[in-house]
Specification:
Shape: globular
CATH architecture of the largest domain: 3-Layer(aba) Sandwich
Oligomer: single chain
Number of domains: 2
Strand content: 5-15%
CATH topology of the largest domain: Rossmann fold
CATH superfamily of the largest domain: NAD(P)-binding Rossmann-like Domain
Helix content: 40-55%
Structural class: alpha/beta
Distance between the termini: 47 Å
Length: about 180
């Protein structure tokens, strides 16, 4: 069963690949049977993914939060990157299905881990976003602040440390008077 906010996308999928189209989330959830796996390719909160995973497990089903990167072009040519959070057995069972439309499908950890990885991916492209915004004459002050933080991390020698390097930057520049007491 397929569900999307764009009806034409759902009907195109079912016309090409079979299956049926749900008209609402409630309808899609009603058909979740024991042993089923719900794959959500939207970008949602990590907490939301964890909650969906828990709710489906109570029904004997599994949930994979599996946001994608690669855009429309990646979807059309089968080169999407899928960042998956969920149970290993459900991932292994559904990996061949996702590989049919993605170039790379990776289990990142438990429920919510796919969303956190997607968020990290979005942070990593801050420089590109700022360049495009500047070219378009758009101001993005919060994004610019994150960009400055990433520049600070580079200057501290943490360019290759990944998204956790932002915490290194925060620790470097936090005034001692605002630090938490030990054990907190």
């Amino acid at each position: 069963m397929v569900l999307d906010v764009v009806d034409a996308v759902v009907h195109s999928w079912t016309d090409d690949h079979g299956g049926s189209a749900a008209t609402s989330v409630a309808e899609a959830v009603d058909v979740i049977a024991s042993g089923a796996v719900w794959i959500d390719h939207s970008t949602i909160s990590a907490d939301g993914a964890w909650q969906y995973g828990e709710a489906l497990r109570t029904q004997g089903a599994e949930f994979l939060d599996a946001p994608v990167s690669g855009g429309v072009g990646g979807a059309r040519n089968g080169s999407l990157t899928v960042m998956v959070g969920g149970q290993t057995a459900a991932f292994e069972r559904m990996k061949p299905t996702m590989a049919a439309y993605a170039g790379r499908v990776t289990l990142m950890g438990e429920s919510g881990a796919g969303q956190i990885t997607k968020m990290t991916n979005l942070i990593c492209v801050v420089g590109l976003v700022l360049d495009e915004a500047k070219a378009m004459g758009i101001s993005l002050p919060a994004t610019a602040l994150v960009g400055r933080f990433l520049s600070d991390v580079d200057a501290l020698g943490g360019a290759d440390l990944g998204w956790c390097s932002l915490m290194m930057r925060q620790r470097q520049f936090v005034p001692e008077s605002t630090e938490q007491p030990e054990g907190k």
